Amino acid sequence: MLSKETLRYHHGHNHDHDLELGHTHSHSHGEEAESKDEKTLKILLVHWVNHNESHQEGFNEWVEKARILGKEETASSIEKAIEYMQKANEMLVEAKKHM
Question: Is residue 72, in this structure, part of any structural domain at all?
Answer without folding.
Answer: yes
